[in-house]
Design a protein that fits this description.
- This protein has 19 helices and no strands.
- By secondary structure, it is mainly α.
C-alpha cells in the first residue's frame, strides 16, 4: 500500500516538475523523459527478475532509489513553486540554474513572463469542488480522460501486465514467452526516442493521431491472427506467428510515438499553475481506476471469448480515439503556459 501511494505521488509530481522546469521550445521532449524512465525501469525489472531471487531483486531496486535520492537532493525546486511561495530571488536563481548557459537577459524576460502568469492565476483559490464545477477545468480533465482510455486500452499496458499469457496464446516455439517479454520491453524503451525528437517539431496532436491509428491497425492484425489460431483446427504456419509478434511489437512502437509518452506532458500543459497539482491528483486516481478495469477486463475477455477479443476491443477503442483526438485535442506545441490558457479561454467563448 505504501509503495502504491509513492507510485501515485510520482505520477502526479514528476510530469508537473518536468513541465515547470522546461523551456517552451523543448517542453514536449523533456516531458517524454518520464515515460523513458518508466520503460527503462520495467526492462530493468524484467531482466533482473530472470536471474535474481526475491531478496536480491528488492536490493537491486533499492539501489536505484538510493542513487536517485543522493543525486536529486542537489536539484532545486521549480521556479513556479518559488513564485507561488513569493520567494522571487530563489525563483530567479532556480530558473538561471535550469537555463544554464543561456543569455541572462532572455532568462530574465522568461522569469518576468512566468511571474505575471503565476501571479494572475494565483488570485483564484482552488478546491476540489471549484475544480470540478469550473467548465474550463472539467473540459481539460475530460479531454485527458479520453487520452487515458485510449492509452490504457491500446493495449500495451495490459500486454505488459499479462505478457506471458499474451505471448503464450500464440506460437512460442520461436522464443520462450519470458524472453519475448524482455524483447518487447526493449522495443518499448527504444521506440520512445523518435517521439522525443519529433514532439516539438511535428506537434502533440499529429503524433497522437498517428499513434492511435497505428495501434488500431495492428490490433486488428493481431485480432485476426488470434481468432484464426483459436478457431482453426489446422496448425498455422510459423510465419503467421512471426507476423503476430511483429504486429504486437508495432503496437508498442506506435503506442510510444504518442499515446505513451505524450499524456504526461499534456497533464502539465492543459492546466494553470494553481490547479495543476489538484487536477493531476484527480487524473492519477482516474488513471488507476481505469487501469484496474482494463486489467480485469483483459483477463475476463481472454477466458470467456479468447485472446482475439482483447485486440478487437483495442482496435475499436483506438479507432474511436482517432476521431476524438482529431476533433477535441488542442495543440500546445511551442506555446507558453499563458498562451495555452488563453487558447482554452478563447474556445470557451
Amino acid at each position: 500500500m505504501i509503495q502504491g501511494v509513492c507510485v501515485a505521488t510520482i505520477n502526479v509530481v514528476c510530469p508537473m516538475y518536468l513541465g515547470e522546469i522546461s523551456d517552451t521550445k523543448i517542453r514536449g521532449a523533456i516531458g517524454t523523459l518520464f515515460q523513458i524512465s518508466v520503460f527503462g525501469g520495467i526492462l530493468y525489472n524484467y531482466i533482473l527478475g530472470s536471474f535474481l531471487n526475491y531478496w536480491n531483486f528488492q536490493l537491486a531496486n533499492l539501489a536505484i532509489s538510493v542513487l536517485f535520492i543522493a543525486t536529486f537532493f542537489f536539484v532545486p525546486e521549480t521556479p513556479c513553486y518559488y513564485i507561488r511561495k513569493r520567494q522571487e530571488e530563489k525563483a530567479r536563481k532556480s530558473l538561471l540554474w535550469f537555463r544554464n548557459g543561456e543569455n541572462v537577459n532572455m532568462v530574465e524576460d522568461e522569469f518576468e513572463e512566468l511571474k505575471r502568469t503565476i501571479v494572475s492565476e494565483s488570485k483564484t483559490k482552488v478546491s476540489l469542488r471549484s475544480l470540478l464545477t469550473n467548465w474550463s477545468s472539467v473540459r481539460c480533465i475530460l479531454l485527458l480522460q479520453g487520452i487515458l482510455v485510449f492509452r490504457i486500452f491500446s493495449p500495451v499496458q495490459t500486454i505488459m501486465a499479462y505478457s506471458n499469457l499474451t505471448f503464450a496464446s500464440g506460437d512460442t516455439s520461436i522464443i520462450p514467452p519470458h524472453y519475448i517479454s524482455i524483447l518487447f520491453a526493449s522495443v518499448l524503451l527504444l521506440s520512445i526516442f523518435p517521439s522525443s525528437y519529433l514532439v516539438d517539431k511535428a506537434g502533440r496532436k499529429v503524433l497522437l493521431l498517428v499513434s492511435t491509428l497505428g495501434c488500431a491497425v495492428f490490433s486488428l492484425v493481431s485480432c485476426v491472427y488470434y481468432y484464426v489460431r483459436e478457431h482453426q483446427t489446422i496448425p498455422l504456419p510459423q510465419m503467421y506467428s512471426i507476423g503476430n509478434f511483429v504486429s504486437i511489437y508495432c503496437i508498442g512502437i506506435f503506442f510510444n510515438l504518442g499515446l505513451g509518452p505524450l499524456y504526461n506532458p499534456l497533464t502539465c500543459e492543459y492546466f494553470p499553475s494553481n490547479t495543476r497539482a489538484l487536477s493531476g491528483a484527480v487524473l492519477a486516481f482516474s488513471s488507476a481506476t481505469i487501469q484496474l478495469v482494463g486489467y480485469k477486463l483483459f483477463y475476463i475477455l481472454h477466458v470467456n471469448f479468447g485472446m482475439y477479443s482483447n485486440f478487437l476491443m483495442s482496435c475499436v477503442i483506438s479507432s474511436i480515439g482517432v476521431v476524438w483526438i482529431q476533433f477535441y485535442i488542442v495543440e500546445t506545441k511551442g506555446k507558453t503556459f499563458a498562451e495555452i490558457q488563453a487558447l482554452f479561454s478563447e474556445q470557451l467563448k
